[in-house]
Specification:
six-stranded mixed sheet, alpha/beta, globular
Length: about 575
């Protein structure tokens, strides 16, 4: 791989580093070799846990993994010796799907998450948080073209159990536009000034694949925008944001991932501008980790035909393929199901099943055929089983026309996938990437509002996938939820809801297999299993150190594990000063 590294310091004391909570001295050294020992080293190779005594790293790659005695015999005289002090070392985490730039955006705007990630519990507290943020961050509002912005509200967790309306947000401002993004990323609320600037009124029709919600018994917009109506609005807001601000947002996003032990990350529904921004950051040696971009095929087809995709990194950046979105979110009740929602959204009858993002099946087939013909890996967003049916049909059609090949298509989210659909994924070599964190964040909501007990217990069916001999990956879809690697692991293992209810007990998997979905199997998804995902000679020294071993502590303690340090190709890029 062609790689150009962001310069990082390593530290040594008498040719030795002691990880006492990853605290180090500050003497820079020239040695490019490190020897890790003194704690469990989990290789992630094989179907069951395998440990090594020592790991030797040189020039960014793993030189040796095995006994401490052999490692010491192989090591250079100037090797930096790192004592893990009983902390665990394993391959760093690989982000199977998320939106890094929007994670950075969340760091800059008002935090409207409910607990445990924020403090918003009702519309009153939401308005208070926005008003406080507005007073404290006038410079951000100015750089965002005068917009007051927030992210992460969730109607499922608001006491009112509804979306804030334009009238509610007028309590923040009547002369400045306000937009707040739903935690799913598929809906938003705006105030009346924003509706005016976006030119949305009672005569504005619903766009294809989206909805402008209306006041009861009228065509007057109430401020809530769904799917394509939202995406169009976001595009108009961001088009004039200065490049320097976009770079700042991107770098804040990267920081959030590194702190959670990720060294390969994804821009999961990119446009041309965002993709070129990441490329530019790479060329400026500003990417400390690997960034893989997947432009939206419906909006970036010409761009992709010009630039294509690559399996090789250039300054830690590459275009991995394309993204296509086929429906919305189950928690927002916009995912496309074959059976009705348990409780339909306001204004919909009991037959409501959500809707397709692209209603024309032939159009979807055409996009997948183009991707297969061009050799682009496809990531398909499909939460509802009707959307999954649509994707499966398109992949079947494209495979018949373009022939068999190692394409590793990925079904993102796969929330309500049926057993018969899992069988078809196996036959078509489609990898399911599950969002098991739904069990915690929206498990109770799915039981009571969207799916009912039986269907809710089957979301993200990881154990069933394994029984059908399918590997799977896990993702957090940040900023839908924060990019917490340990919360991901906890949800995949325990499947507990906010109310501590175990949702789908039979779909729980072991901590080791859950870790496989975040390392080894995620590397395979990216076509990078020869370079990443396990600790083996010749692979990249992408490493994470945790303060406790997920395989040996009580499973309910997993979410409390802390990331102590993150290494990219042997270089320390994050350490937790508190551990």
């Amino acid at each position: 791989m062609n790689r150009n590294h962001l310069h990082q310091f390593a530290w040594v004391t008498s040719f030795s580093i002691v990880l006492s909570g990853c605290a180090t001295s500050s003497i820079p050294v020239s040695s490019n070799e490190k020897l890790f020992y003194g704690g469990p080293i989990l290789t992630m190779s094989g179907d069951t846990p395998e440990y090594a005594e020592a790991l030797l790293v040189k020039n960014g790659t793993i030189r040796f993994v095995g006994s401490k005695q052999q490692a010491e015999q192989l090591a250079d005289k100037t090797v930096q010796v790192i004592d893990l002090k009983n902390k665990i070392l394993l391959p760093s985490f690989i982000d199977a799907h998320s939106h890094v730039n929007m994670v950075g955006f969340h760091q800059m705007v008002a935090n409207l998450y409910p607990q445990p990630d924020g403090q918003v519990s009702d519309i009153h507290s939401l308005v208070n948080v926005l008003n406080t943020w507005k007073k404290q961050h006038p410079e951000v509002i100015q750089t965002m073209g005068g917009w007051i912005l927030g992210n992460g509200y969730d109607d499922a967790q608001l006491n009112e159990k509804r979306h804030p309306t334009a009238t509610d947000l007028d309590r923040v401002s009547t002369d400045q536009p306000v937009m707040i993004l739903h935690q799913s990323g598929h809906l938003a609320s705006v105030n009346h000034k924003a509706l005016e600037l976006l030119k949305i009124d009672q005569n504005t029709p619903n766009p294809a694949g989206g909805v402008i919600r209306r006041e009861a018994n009228s065509n007057i917009p109430n401020g809530v925008l769904e799917e394509s109506a939202l995406f169009t609005a976001i595009g108009s807001i961001f088009k004039d944001v200065p490049p320097a601000v976009m770079f700042q947002i991107a770098q804040k996003g990267i920081d959030a991932y590194v702190k959670n032990g990720f060294t390969t990350v994804q821009e999961g529904r990119a446009d041309q501008g965002t993709t070129e921004m990441w490329r530019s950051l790479g060329q400026q040696n500003q990417l400390p980790i690997d960034m893989v971009s997947y432009p939206d095929i419906t909006t970036s087809k010409d761009y992709m035909l010009k630039y294509g995709s690559s399996r090789q990194y250039d300054h830690h950046f590459r275009i991995g393929g394309v993204k296509i979105s086929l429906d919305g979110s189950p928690q927002g009740k916009t995912a496309w199901l074959t059976q009705p929602y348990l409780v339909p959204p306001e204004g919909k009858d009991k037959t409501y099943k959500g809707y397709a993002a692209i209603s024309n099946d032939q159009e979807v087939k055409n996009y997948i055929n183009l991707a297969f013909k061009q050799g682009w890996q496809v990531l398909a967003h499909a939460n509802g089983d009707a959307a999954i049916d649509q994707f499966i049909a398109a992949v079947k059609d494209a495979t018949q026309k373009q022939g068999q090949a190692d394409r590793r298509s990925v079904l993102i989210h796969s929330q309500t996938i049926r057993d018969d659909q899992l069988d078809q994924l196996k036959a078509l070599d489609i990898i399911p990437s599950f969002f098991s964190l739904h069990t915690f964040y929206w498990g109770d909501w799915h039981r009571q509002q969207t799916l009912g007990e039986q269907r809710a217990a089957r979301i993200s069916p990881t154990a069933t996938a394994l029984k059908k001999h399918l590997i799977f990956t896990e993702h957090h879809d940040a900023p839908v939820v924060p990019p917490s690697s340990m919360m991901m692991l906890d949800a995949t293992v325990n499947r507990t809801t906010r109310s501590n209810y175990v949702l789908g007990e039979n779909e729980r998997v072991s901590p080791y297999l859950a870790l496989k979905s975040m390392t080894d199997w995620a590397a395979y998804q990216y076509f990078e299993d020869q370079q990443k995902g396990t600790l083996a000679q010749g692979k990249l020294a992408d490493l994470v150190i945790l303060d406790r071993n997920p395989l040996t502590i009580p499973s309910r303690e997993i979410k409390k594990i802390k990331v102590v340090a993150t290494y990219k190709e042997g270089k320390l890029i994050y350490q937790d000063s508190k551990n």
